[in-house]
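Complex 195.
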Amino acid sequence: MPARKPPSQSKSNCIFCDLVQGSAEVSMCYEDDVALAFMDIQPVNPGHVLVIPRDHYETLQDIPRAVGWHLFQVTTRLIPVIQKIAGAEDMNLIVNSGPAAGQNVFHYHIHLIPRTKGDGFDVPLPFPGSEMPNRHLLDAMAVRIGSALRMDPTRETPASGVRVVNPADRMAATVTVAAPKAKAGAKPKAPPKKR
Ligand code: 5GP
Ligand code: ZN
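Predicted structure with guanosine-5'-monophosphate bound:
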């Protein structure tokens, strides 16, 4: 059975909702109608920021897609700025979604963690305790996920230019790139001769 979140962390008793409402101290670095970003009170490194929705959603599963998309856009906007200000070489984006995944504050948030070599932090991937499954197991899992995705009634139509193919054909989703336009005055290429 999956671990359940502690009942004390509901909307009415949420530290991040308090920050949104201005009833607790916070160092805010970005705000709009949907999202906020502020400094983590216990940063991994200087410049550790949390991006959150203004409204209270607990985990990834609760986030409406449009809100999730907006949070990701805010995140990608902040990344180069934080890296520059913090003098960091790189960045980890982390979402702990649900108690089993290590979430402690049950108001959805994205960690933006600036990284420099030798800073002592680690996200140990590949997981040292993992054994490499054989290709059949990987393929079987890929097919199951792909099939479930195609049967999902809530799925959206792929964006234009994105072609989703059957994973059973052992191909990943591919992005089709438009062919470059022919230069003005250039002769059109003759189609290949049939043999
Ligand atoms: P989680 O473990 O849920 O992914 O991360 C929660 C994060 O929220 C932690 O990194 C923690 O330092 C941060 N945090 C917890 N309480 C507060 C708070 O009152 N203010 C701020 N700014 N950050 C907090
Ligand atoms: Zn909240």
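Residues 11, 14, 16-17, 56, 107 surround zinc ion (ligand 2) (CB under 6 Å).
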